[in-house]
Design goal:
The structure is a homodimer. By secondary structure, chain A is mainly α. Chain A has one domain: Farnesyl Diphosphate Synthase (Orthogonal Bundle). Chain A is about 75% helix and about 0% strand. Chain A has a two-stranded antiparallel ribbon. In chain A, helix 3 crosses helix 8 and helix 12 crosses helix 14. Chain A is globular, with a radius of gyration of 20 Å. In chain A, about 50% of the residues are buried. At the A-B interface, helix 2, helix 4, helix 6 and helix 7 of A face helix 2, helix 4, helix 6 and helix 7 of B.
């Protein structure tokens, strides 16, 4: 079996494990089935299966499932936090049910992940993922400060991207390496590569939110509608004169989609260009670390993941 | 030092540990300080310190802190779920800040508890508390089915009381016994005692919600206002004729406090009396198991806790 087939097959095992195991209570099974009906890209689980690909230890399927469960729980809580009506093209939990259901099924899934983690029973992995979960919550909390805050610093935006997204990418790669008993250098290189890849992934996410809805097939301008200052807005605002700053400020929290003249303003102030440049910077960093990975298969896969993250258009 | 002084001193150490350790990010430290400003009763931490009282292992302070952190996280999420404006006599997090802050600081505190748990590094304790957290979320989810549901069964109500409250009492006592390396019989007796004590605690909570607000010094009729069917309503409804059933149904989800004639109806249909009888049943069970505990000090404290839970009027 070639490597790609092997990892795809393992990803199916992850899906099967997640879908198999939930409470028989009606409300819970209904929610659970709805949430895991659509299979996301599972890029985090894939990362974990890539860095653990040299072990035959079956526990890596459980570990990759933990990564996916943690990720899913944060998405569900995010949708409550942002009051998002949709997720992955279907209605969000808080939209079909209520905020209460979103909060509680998120807690249910978080704790399910910890149950699996305890089963795996590796203290280093437990430590890494407990601290990761805490960092993600921190990142999301700090992001609340970015709402309607035109004075947010670039450093704060980078911290948010790392904590809310880069951190779980990093932990997925690192715990994969730990379960496969890889050496320190390998562990360090895949972790740093994944961390930068995750930040890159988030920057592109912020960028795609300023693109043409028809092209990417999902709602756009969500961040600016929520009043959330992300990189494109940040860079434009920095380059703006007083009159332009006023125009930009008025866009934060608007209930409508941006008009083309608004988007033109952001483009002319280099918000899009500078964000792309930042993404490229993180792509270079990710590749740098990937190239230090001695195993050629894993190196290649990490580079592919970084390239995909940079070039994705949805 | 006598035992009471010792446990009180340990509870101060729990408070100190919790208050000492949090992120330096402004938003987070502000939330954290607000949440832990008032010192609750800490009955769950006390339970844990009681069953672990025969060990000198300093980790029990951390364990009791974990119990308190988990409890606090569930309260904060509960307040989002129930849209409660107050908690412990002060405004709730979701009221001072927003639902988003409540969800995220709850996640932050949950994961902080898991970080401490991993530090303690006892697999049995990890397993017990991961499964407890999952059960609490299940209990809260099942409780959503009790909203505006006059056909809920007594068994379902008991399951809710166990999962959302009894379970953490049980785990507090059990993990205390584990960390103190107590024998199997001790472990079983304190766990069963605490489980019944926790259910009793919840039943009294449901009962107090149907009492005179001036007497208990906190808002009452919250459950019925939220449309939540709890024991007093359940028993009254069961005894009601068609006309009374209609009157009771109309009370679910009212926005005002109950009038005295409404409360009279519930009383005359024995909702209060039967709930008290149920509480007494669980009190007897808790005492039964307490009496099997050989250590006389711990036995006495468990009996005192059960008596306090039954007789509290606020």
């Amino acid at each position: 079996m070639n490597r790609n087939t092997k990892i795809s097959k393992e990803l199916r095992s992850v899906e099967a494990l997640i879908k198999r195991d939930f409470s028989k209570e009606n409300t819970i099974s209904g929610l659970y089935k709805y949430i895991f009906k659509s299979n996301g890209k599972k890029i985090r689980a894939k990362l974990c299966l890539t860095t653990s690909s040299r072990t035959k230890n079956k526990e890596k399927i459980k570990l990759a499932s933990v990564i996916e469960l943690l990720h899913t729980a944060t998405l569900i809580h995010d949708d409550v936090v942002d009051e998002s009506p949709t997720r992955r093209g279907i209605r969000s939990v808080n939209n079909v049910w209520t905020n209460a259901h979103g909060v509680l099924i998120g807690d249910y899934i978080y704790s399910k992940a910890f149950i699996y983690l305890v089963d795996i029973g590796n203290k280093k992995i437990l430590k890494e993922l407990a601290s990761t979960t805490n960092d993600i919550a921190q990142g999301e909390l700090v992001q609340l400060d970015a709402i309607n805050n035109v004075n947010i610093t670039l450093n704060k935006l980078k911290k948010i991207s790392y904590f809310k997204t880069g951190r779980l990418f990093e932990a997925a790669a690192k715990t994969g390496a730990i379960i496969a008993n890889e050496n320190k250098a390998f562990n360090y290189n895949v972790s740093e590569c994944a961390k930068n890849l995750g930040i890159l992934f988030q920057i592109i996410d912020d960028l795609l939110d300023y693109s043409d809805s028809k092209k990417i097939g999902k709602p756009v301008f969500q961040d600016i509608k929520e009043g959330k200052v992300t990189y494109p807005f940040f860079y434009s605002y920095k380059n703006a004169n007083t009159r332009e700053k006023k125009r930009l400020k008025d866009l934060l929290g608007v209930s409508r989609d941006l008009k083309s003249k608004d988007l033109e303003l952001i483009k002319s102030l280099e918000g899009i260009k500078k964000t792309k440049q930042l993404a490229e910077k993180y792509h270079i960093k990710a590749i740098e670390y990937a190239k230090k990975i001695k195993n050629l298969d894993i190196r290649k896969e990490m580079i592919e993941l970084a390239d995909t993250a940079l070039n994705r258009d949805k």
